């Protein structure tokens, strides 16, 4: 134990002392917790402990094999990043890609580097094209991810689109029909709702996530999407989050994903 750590150590806070705090949910040792949050390698985080940088909320130094609930731990006096089970929403800007298979900048580069080292891994919930902006979720919860993207969940995805040509007038009924087929597909599209804002500005709400779906739907009517932005998922709206900005979602906001928009 180095001198600073020894001075800061809470009197009597040995392993049993931690248990006096009524800790039930702290099953993972702090070293593993902090490494898995991406703050550094085991060696680097071990050094942080030795330097006394990892404390409880009252400033008492903690140790690598202590088991303390995440919410009570501070690194350099700051709260840790959210624990696993994290859901983030981002306003994906234009020109960045969701797929590691594509070249160029990735959406992950808009998060702090340590978020890319987290375990379990943080991944996007579905994808938006490089040329599409708007509401994009990230999570490290595989079960939640599959629940959101599962066709069975029918989560409503609402896009605002600007079109190259005026609507012809048949699109609302065509998209709502449930029998509209896209080229090279073998099943018709589920009914989708088209709200016309102006002849070239629309909101389209779909419950599927087929490849380039919105662009292909308009292309099939002889039109072209000039700009595309996802504005909501279920009742969760992008709101005033600026392009490139992101924030963790609260539990109640996660529930909104599965709620119909009023
Ligand atoms: N539909 C598209 O065409 N592109 C997207 O990014 C999302 C939906």
Describe the structure.
- With 262 residues, the chain is of the alpha+beta class.
- The protein is 21% helix and 22% strand.
- The chain has eight helices and twelve strands.
- Strands 4, 5, 6, 7, 8, 9, 10, 11 and 12 form a nine-stranded mixed beta sheet that branches. Strands 1-2-3 form a three-stranded antiparallel beta sheet, with no helix packed on it.
- β8 and β9 (201-206) form a beta hairpin.
- α3 packs across α4.
- Uracil binds at residues 128-129, 132, 212-215, 228.
List each distinct ligand once.
uracil
Average pLDDT, rounded to a whole number, is 90
Class of secondary structure makeup: alpha+beta
- Rounded to an integer in angstroms, the radius of gyration calculated over CA atoms is 24 Å
Strand content: 15-25%
Compressed to H and E, one letter per element, the order equals HHHHEEEEEEHEHEEHEEEH
Shape: elongated
Counting copies of identical and different chains, the oligomeric state is single chain
**How can the largest sheet be summarized?**
9 strands, mixed
Helix content bin: 10-25%
What's the total count of β strands? Answer: 12
- Flag low-confidence runs: 1-25
User: Total number of helical segments?
Assistant: 8
Distance between the termini: 58 Å
């Amino acid at each position: 134990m180095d001198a600073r750590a020894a001075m800061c150590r809470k009197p009597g806070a040995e392993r049993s002392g931690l248990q006096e705090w009524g800790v039930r949910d702290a099953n993972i040792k702090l070293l593993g917790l902090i490494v898995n949050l991406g703050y550094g390698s085991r060696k680097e985080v071990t050094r942080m402990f030795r330097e006394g940088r990892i404390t409880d909320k009252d400033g008492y130094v903690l140790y690598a094999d202590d088991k303390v609930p995440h919410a009570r731990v501070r690194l350099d006096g700051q709260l840790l990043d959210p624990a696993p089970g994290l859901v983030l929403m981002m306003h994906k800007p234009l020109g960045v890609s969701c797929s590691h298979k594509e070249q160029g900048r990735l959406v992950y580069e808009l998060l702090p580097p340590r978020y890319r080292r987290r375990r379990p891994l943080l991944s996007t919930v579905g994808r938006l094209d490089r040329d599409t902006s708007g509401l994009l979720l990230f999570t490290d919860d595989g079960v939640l991810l599959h629940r959101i993207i599962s066709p069975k969940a029918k989560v409503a995805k609402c896009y605002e689109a600007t079109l190259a040509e005026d609507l012809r007038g048949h699109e609302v009924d065509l998209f709502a029909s449930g029998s509209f087929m896209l080229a090279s597909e073998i099943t018709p599209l589920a009914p989708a709702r088209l709200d016309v804002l102006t002849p070239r500005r629309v909101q389209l709400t779909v419950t599927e996530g087929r490849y380039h779906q919105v662009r292909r739907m308009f292309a099939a009517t002889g039109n072209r999407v000039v700009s595309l932005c996802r504005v909501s998922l279920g009742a969760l709206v992008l709101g005033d989050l600026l392009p490139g900005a992101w924030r963790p979602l609260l539990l109640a906001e996660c529930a909104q994903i599965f709620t119909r928009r009023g």
